[in-house]
Design goal:
Length: 254
């Protein structure tokens, strides 16, 4: 079964994926941001579904998530905002969030809605691999959704192989063990981690996230990986400039 994500991963270039919190800066900015990102050459978009207890997120993403919740963002509102997104946008769209809101909505109902809208994949950092495989994999597949797992420098080779085996899109490679949005540039530790993963010859390509914010870090991250994800830096840009200067941001990356 072909999926926009797998098709995009076959393109002969390094992919730029952008993350933002749905409903930020203003509740109804979601669609415009997605459209602007595609117009400005972004390859994939991660739409953050705000959650009140965001464990893996650094301060920038947490603040935007909290602001989005204050703006009134909910799962239902997000789905409503995105209902016609495929009339204007053709690149892969991934919802990134925490498992709790999905569970509250109903896993099957959530997946079905994603399929109706044209969402291609989900990233739920707190949904454990074994729980996914046992309880939810069949549902994700039924609705054509790719589930993206995260690995970190601390993830064992055995675990990475299990994740690779269970994946059918890309692996989200967290560049460091810290939360998102910190660090400047990548040190030797990250470089050797990138090389270690590259040497494993996994069947799924890797896309690096955390710590990418400019052309230099994008190039470093994609030397061995297929692409990179930018979150905090883009959210800071939105906070400073509002939603109409996306072109200025993407030009700084590549």
């Amino acid at each position: 079964m072909s999926n926009r994500i797998t098709t995009k991963l076959q393109e002969d270039k390094k992919l730029l994926s952008i993350y933002f919190s749905a409903g930020y800066p203003a509740l109804n900015d979601t669609v415009q941001i997605i459209q602007d990102l595609e117009e400005n050459g972004v390859d994939m978009i991660e739409i953050g579904l705000p959650f009140s207890d965001p464990l893996a997120d650094g301060p920038t993403i947490q603040e935007s998530s909290t602001a989005a919740l204050r703006n009134g963002m909910t799962t239902e509102i997000l789905f409503n905002q995105l209902k016609d997104i495929r009339k204007t946008v053709s690149i892969p769209l991934i919802i990134m969030g925490y498992f709790n809101p999905m569970l509250q909505y109903g896993v099957e109902a959530f997946c079905k809605k994603c399929q109706e809208i044209g969402i291609d994949g989900l990233i739920m950092p707190d949904l454990p691999l074994d729980v996914y495989k046992e309880d939810y994999e069949a549902t994700f597949k039924k609705y054509g959704l790719i589930n993206v797992f995260l690995i970190t420098p601390q993830t064992s080779d055995t675990r990475i192989r299990q994740i690779d085996d269970a994946s059918n899109g890309f692996i989200y490679m967290v560049s460091s063990a810290s939360v998102t949005g910190s660090k400047s540039g990548f040190g030797q530790e990250q470089e050797s981690y990138f090389e270690r993963i590259a040497a494993m010859n996994l069947k799924n390509p890797q896309i690096v996230g955390f710590g990418i914010k400019d052309e230099e870090t994008f190039k470093q991250a994609t030397k061995t990986a297929k692409g990179a994800i930018i979150g905090s830096a883009f959210i800071k840009h939105l906070t400073a400039n509002g939603t109409d200067k996306t072109a200025e941001f993407t030009k700084l990356i590549r």
